[in-house]
Hints:
Order of helices and strands: EHHHHHHHHHHE
Strand order of the largest sheet: 1-2
Number of helices: 10
Amino acid sequence: MTDLVVRRLLIDLDSPVARHWFGGDAFRTALFNALSMSFPVGEQFFIDSVRTGLKTLSAADQEKYRIEAQGFIGQEATHRRIHGLFNVQIEKHGLVNDWEPRARERLKLLNGFHPRHWLAITAATEHFTAVFADWILSNPDLFDGTETRLKTMWLWHSAEEAEHKSTAFDLYRALGGTDESRIKWFKRITFIFLSDLLRQTVNNLYRDGTLWKWRTWKSAASFLFGQRGMIRLTYKPWRAYKQPDFHPNQLASELSRDWLQSHTEAYSIVGTQTPVAA
């Protein structure tokens, strides 16, 4: 059980965002823009998965997980809203979100599936975000040269992702989900997620006019595979999910707690309750 606090991020997303807002780097900007484009539809699916999964449990188990599920829903709803505002700004640069409509069509295929399958997909994706979040929180200086409000947005989101990384996983288990099915879904979602991320990043670079520039791919190689590269440092914790005895709590959460405790000026507390039936 985890006490999940719902926070309102105190930043301005009504003001324009620079074209290459990530420290002036085209590749980093395109990659993080792609991630943000996936969040509104993704966060809504996670909310629906946890909400429906909770309702499917026995009355006793519903009471056991209700408070944590409410906190999860509240946090994800806030992420959905914040990134929706951010996406409005970046799309003013001529970017087109092709990921979201593709994801919506794919999600229609899940209609009629038992809620534990939805939760398996959610748990798999939440593992990606938790691993990615820990990497970001370990390397906040990568955002040097980025506007404070945008650096705060990504670090706050990362801290909360690490905070609620176990919710969908535990509900999946409570509904009788097996390790075999969990790992199968993880492999499928890994392929789909990384393929979509690559497609949208390339799409963003193409529309930005920086796809064929040498410095774009030099930055990509360093950012992904360098000494502190994203893929280089996240592969091992990503792979841990495929172990039969894996649980998200095996991943460290100290950086998340430290950031949230040391940046209380960046947010206000809304609460721990969001109506599950909403």
